[in-house]
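User: My collaborator sent over this chain with a note saying "see what the structure looks like." That's all I know about it. Can you take a look?
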Amino acid sequence: MSQVPIIWPGSSSFASGQTPFAFYDSDTDFTTDADKVASFCASRLGYPTVDVELGSGSFYACFEEAVTTYGNELYLYQIRNNFINLEASSTGSAHNQDVINPNLGNIIRISENYAQEAGAGGNVTWHSGSIPLTASQQEYDLDDWKTDQGITGSIEIKQVFYQNTPAIVRYFDPYAGTGYGSQQLLDVFGFGNYSPAINFLLMPIYYDVSVIQAIELNDTIRKSAFTFELVNNKLRIFPIPNQEGQLFIQYIQVNDRNSPTGSDFAGQNLVTDISNVPYENPTYQYINAPGRYWIFEYTLALAKELLGYVRGKYQQVPIPGAEVSLNQGDLISAATAEKAALIDKLRNDLDENSRKLQLQRKAEEADAMGKTLDQVPLPIYIA
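Assistant: Without extra context I'll predict from the sequence alone. Here is the result:
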């Protein structure tokens, strides 16, 4: 026995629970419009001239889907436009009614990654260590040094403090390197604990600067430059040390820098991608008239598509002396085109009202106004 298709009776009465998901069943505006939208769609599909093989539940389902699609398009657009301002924010409360203000939080967080490479910021710890220097040894194996220090994982050397003795030190100790320090010489001559710097207190400052410059120039001309190079975890220093000592370095653990999830965000419920930006389904009563009109048209396209699938089950209907072919193919094709056109129009409207285009139009408006005002003659004041 063939199943008799449901025919639209001409009216409906919405009640809570008649939509698939009940997203908006408690919204009085939605419940009021549901029956109006059902009648609107039935009329546009040919009722009462032709039978419409859809029941009220089908129209309600299409209406609910249209509202949800409208909200999805709006909120996905908001997320795309503002994700840099939303990433790493709390997922606690929905942003449906919030104004998303541009902020520098994420930009600063990104810039910190560059700052930490120069040791000027960021969250990566710079560790300190020292390498024992051996007289006449120029090259030092950092892998061996790591093992001796009990360091695991890869490290990256950030600074090597291998440099000439500052000129200011030798400025106050002109006998450095002779085997006698200034204080030793003062003791020998019976001057006790007088500071060797007393000699310079009465000298003009430019004299002090010229002496320091002379010491540095002498180092540049007569000595090898203090420098180093790192190749294959081997540290080579120049010049070759002539006595034992300590070479101080600063380094980072590579895993600390390369970790994709910073410790600042551990254990927090934060926005990480578009899937957990806190947006809920739209509140239908807050949607304005242009938005509702789009929803009505999209509901009609969905109902037309659904009617096409229903009529596809009954491709030919027998009548006395003949058979009538139904237009399921035309309905589905038209519905597909209408849905695509409505989505394109909505996306275009959203793009036209983006923050970027609004600022561009505002700038163009200000420029045009300025050119207009330039043509206005200045008033003449007569005393």
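A starting point for your reply to your collaborator: The two ends are 104 Å apart (CA to CA).
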